[in-house]
Task: inverse folding
């Protein structure tokens, strides 16, 4: 029986990761174009290049973690060792040097690449913990739910407070130097919070599941086993598609509110004396709705199965996203309502994905006798990176194609393009995700058989 404190501790890890991940998804593109001063197309190319490399780095982390043996376990030590570098490099990613356009672009390539590598080095082992805290699918579903709830709480806090903190640290000064200082300091606050949360995750969790045999396979054998894992390929495609959906919507939100809605008209929005920005509220409301989706995922999947729950959520998200295109900028109420509905759908699928990756680990161990937990879970992080790489690259390139000019009044063509980023373009990702997941073979009945067979083998070993 997993203690409540351990469920909370496991949630702390993704709360920390998601605070930075959401800042990257929602604000890094507009930071690079409107604050850092880089062309949108160049930023799109940078995201694609750096994230493709970083995605390939994830399996390396998984392989190394599988072969790590310490008194703290295989995966927990990385959370302890890397939480401070994670925060420090995150801060430097949002620092604006004075190296000129070319020099700043090189600096962006270097710092963002390092940030994504350190993200992989701490997040892949963290994700792999789900496979070794408990061998029971029900426990994993519960832990996955806690993970996603805390992830969205972290995202909610970061997205709600980030712009107010920028305004605070910049003194509400729109001068570029003041804005750069505001962004840098605001990220510093988030970084400190992330470090403390990672420490909590390390302290409160334990590793219990031992492999049938200690990791002695050659790397080529691990990769061969992975490539023959059919359910893994399906989840990889579904995960990439789902992240394309998320990354396009999140990455274009601030552009949508800054240039289409004209959120400067709504500067008087405040709560408890704290002034908020409309785009930040929109994103934060989405995180609350994501949490609702996460909470609904477990009872729905227990009732109708993970696969049907996933497919239903993505079909509804597709329809709602397409309708979103026709909303007038004065229809703020309906825009926020649809954000809630779409975000509930999006929130419900990710705990299912994490739980299904754990199932893939058991499936692989039964077939091969080799439990490459880190390598398999690294693919989940890899699918995130590929999805965000493709989604953000598309956003940057199409902004350039639609004629976007930072901090200027946009043309009708550009505005229509920005509207598509929250409607037709993310709908492509949801459709692809449905197509992939429709082929997923590990039903609840099959997983019960696999769990019993693995338990029988472990008992024989004892």
Result:
């Amino acid at each position: 029986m997993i203690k409540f404190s351990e469920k909370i501790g496991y949630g702390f890890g993704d709360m920390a990761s998601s605070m930075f991940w959401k800042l990257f998804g929602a604000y890094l593109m507009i930071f690079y174009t409107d604050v850092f001063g880089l062309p949108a197309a160049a930023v799109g190319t940078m995201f694609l290049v750096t994230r493709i490399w970083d995605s390939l780095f994830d399996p390396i982390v998984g392989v190394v973690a599988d072969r790590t043996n310490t008194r703290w376990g295989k995966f927990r030590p990385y959370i302890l060792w890397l939480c401070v570098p994670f925060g420090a490099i995150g801060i430097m990613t949002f620092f604006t040097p004075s190296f000129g356009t070319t020099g700043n672009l090189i600096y962006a390539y270097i710092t963002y690449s390092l940030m994504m590598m350190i993200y992989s080095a701490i997040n892949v082992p963290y994700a792999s913990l789900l496979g070794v805290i408990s061998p029971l699918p029900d426990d994993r579903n519960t832990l996955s739910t806690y993970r996603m709830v805390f992830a969205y709480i972290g995202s909610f806090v970061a997205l709600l407070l980030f712009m107010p903190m920028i305004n605070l640290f910049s003194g509400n000064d729109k001068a570029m130097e003041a804005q750069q200082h505001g962004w840098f300091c605001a990220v510093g606050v988030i970084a400190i919070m992330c470090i403390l949360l990672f420490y909590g995750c390390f302290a409160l969790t334990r590793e219990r599941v031992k492999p049938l045999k200690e990791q002695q396979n050659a790397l080529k054998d691990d990769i061969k086993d992975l490539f023959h894992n059919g359910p893994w390929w399906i989840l990889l495609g579904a995960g990439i598609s789902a992240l394309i959906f998320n990354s396009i919507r999140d990455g274009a939100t601030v552009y949508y509110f800054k240039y289409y809605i004209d959120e400067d008209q709504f500067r008087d929005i405040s709560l408890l004396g704290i002034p908020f920005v409309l785009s930040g509220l929109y994103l934060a409301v989405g995180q609350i709705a994501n949490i609702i989706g996460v909470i609904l995922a477990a009872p729905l999947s227990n009732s109708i199965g993970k696969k049907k729950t996933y497919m239903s959520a993505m079909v509804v998200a597709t329809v709602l996203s397409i309708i979103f295109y026709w909303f007038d900028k004065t229809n703020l109420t309906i825009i926020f309502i649809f954000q809630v509905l779409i975000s509930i759908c999006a929130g419900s699928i990710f705990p299912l994905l994490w739980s299904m990756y754990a199932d893939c680990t058991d499936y692989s161990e039964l077939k091969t006798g080799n439990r490459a937990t880190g390598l398999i879970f690294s693919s989940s992080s890899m699918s995130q990176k590929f999805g965000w790489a493709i989604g953000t690259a598309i956003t940057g390139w199409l902004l350039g194609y639609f004629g976007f000019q930072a901090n200027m009044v946009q043309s009708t063509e550009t505005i229509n393009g920005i509207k598509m980023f929250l409607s037709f373009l993310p709908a492509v990702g949801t459709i692809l995700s449905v197509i992939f997941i429709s082929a997923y073979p590990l039903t609840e009945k099959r997983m019960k058989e696999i769990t019993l067979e693995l338990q029988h083998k472990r008992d024989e070993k004892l």
